[in-house]
Amino acid sequence: MMQTTLLTLLHSSVSGMLARQIDLDTIANNLANVNTSGYKPARVDFKELLEPNMKDTELAGPYRGTGLGVTRISVSPGALTMGDSPLNMAIEGDGFFAVNLPQGGVAYTRDGRFTKDVNNNLVTASGRRVVWQGTLPADAQNLHVNPDGSVMAQVNNIWTQVGRLQTYRFVNPSGLLNVGDSSFQVSNDSGAAQAGTPGATGYGRIMSGVIESSATNLSDEISNMIVAQRAYSMSVKAFQQTDDMIGLAIRLRVR
Prior knowledge:
By secondary structure, the chain is an alpha+beta fold. It has helices at 6-32, 218-254, and strands at 42-49, 65-73, 80-82, 89-92, 97-100, 106-109, 115-116, 122-123, 133-134, 142-145, 150-155, 158-164, 167-169, 177-180, 183-185, 194-196, 205-208, 210-212.
């Protein structure tokens, strides 16, 4: 059994403050993105660091007590709202869109505020090119995306298919890494991306002219913030009381 000392108590209270600060930062980011399309709120899991044989590399800094475990993203869908373009899309069910990152590589997002740029590329609201098979005609009179991902264009009053979108799913989507702009990258925890046809088994269908809102639940986040603030305050009080005991022990020894 681990021997509890004043130093152990001091470390535990400090690590508790650090852990709750991370928790509060995560909650604050969720609240800041309550109106961000396709945003998925994050949750922080912590782990106990009180084992007597805990490796130094697993400690929360030089402290024992509470350490950062993993940060998980929510897989809950946001509410669907009407967009202002037929190229705005939302996935009803499981799945993500794929987009190219400026520095290379692919990210995955539920933010379907897509549009056509000056070069007739299908891009996100921030200008990232969407991964899909096809080309948008420069002279298209109208555009539409079917639930199965087929992209239709009206040219000279005739509708034709000009490409197709796939959606991507993961064994553990909550393990994806947040890279900003409501986008995520693959991690060892999430597993590899699995491409599929929208509407097929396990893949949500695409809705054209619709946008998925943020999945942040305002009331839940405020409740979580209150709990985290109280936990932080308790760690501060534990630190102060332990510091007082150490000071008292020093003064008694000096006497």
